[in-house]
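Quick one:
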Amino acid sequence: MPVTEQMVRLTSLTHGEGCACKLSLDELNGVLDRVAPGQHPDLVVGAGTGDDAAVWRQRDGRLLVATTDFFPPLVDDPFTWGQIAAANAVSDVYAMGAEPCFALNLVGWPRNLDVGLLEQVLAGATSVADKAGYPLVGGHTIDAAQPLYGQAVIGEVGERNLLTNAGAQPGQALVLTKPIGTGIAVTAAKRSDPEAVEADTPLGRAYRAAVASMIRLNRCASQVATEFHATAATDVAGFGLLGHLHRLAAASGVSCELDPARVPLLPGVEALVDEGFAPGGTRRNVEQSARFVRGSVDARTRTLLCDAQTSGGLLVACAERDAPAVHAVLSSRGHDAAVIGVVLPAGASTGEPGTIHLGALPA
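Output:
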C-alpha cells in the first residue's frame, strides 16, 4: 500500500536522525586506516586528514572543492528536511573557505512513499541553494528501504583563502559559530507526540531553535574566518564538538583546551538530556571521547559536548588577538558565536596530538 502525504510521519521511517547516522569516529578511522588514500600531485587535500572536503588544484591555480553529504529525515516536514540537508551539505564547502559553484541531488526513495513528498524535499533544498547562490543541476535517485536525501557540492577557492583542519597553531583561539544540541532536540521531537513538539513548551522551543540553527548557512561564518585570516576550520557534525575538535587537533599536530562553560547551547537542551533524550550517535561519541579527552565534567555536559550535530557551526582557529573581533562581527550578523578554547602545543605536558583538555579559561 503506498504511503501518502496525509499518512506519513517521515521520522518514523528511519532508525536514526541526520548526521547521528554516521559511522562512529573509531569505525570510520578503522576502515580508512586499512585503505590507502588516493594520491595525485594536484590533490591538495585528500582523505589523509579526515577533512571536510577534497581539494583539487586546477590548471589555472584555482582550487576545486568537492564534498557530499546525505541522511534520512530528521524532521517530519519534507520542505524543512530539504532545507537542512542542503545547508548541511554546503557547509563542508564553507568550512574550506570556499564558495559553492553547483550541486547534484542524491536521493534514495522507497517506491511505496508518495513522490509528492520528494518534490517538497527538493523544493526546500532548492530554496537554500538559491539563497547560497548555487544551482542544483540534476543528480541520482535510487529505490531505497528508507528515504535519503543530500547533495554532492562542488565549490571553488583561491589558495590564499583555503581553510583546512590541519592549520591550527599553538596560541590561537577557538571560535564556535553556532550553538550545539541539535541531535538532542530532534531526537526528543522524534520520540514525542507531534502536538508536544508544536506547543509552546521547552521541547517545542528547543526544537524550533534547532531547526532555525540547522537551516542557517555557514557562509557568513566562512567569510568572517577568511576576513580575519583564520588558519584552520571544520564544521561540527556527526562526531560532536569534541570529536571534530579532536580531528582538527590531530591533523594540526596540536592539542587544545576547551572551556565547557563557554560553549553555546540551544535553549532547553540541558533539560532534554536530563530526560534521557540522546541519539545513538551521541552515545557512541561519549564512549569514544574517553580516548582523547582529559579532565572531568558531569554526564550531562559530556553528552552535550559529544552530541551528534546536523548542519552545525564552524569551529575556527584564529589569532587570539582577533578572537574578540571575530566574535563581535559574527554576533552582529545574527550568529550565536563564542570563543570556547585555545590551541596548545602537543608535548609531554599537554598530551599527544589530538588531546583535548577540559577546563576553565581565564576571564
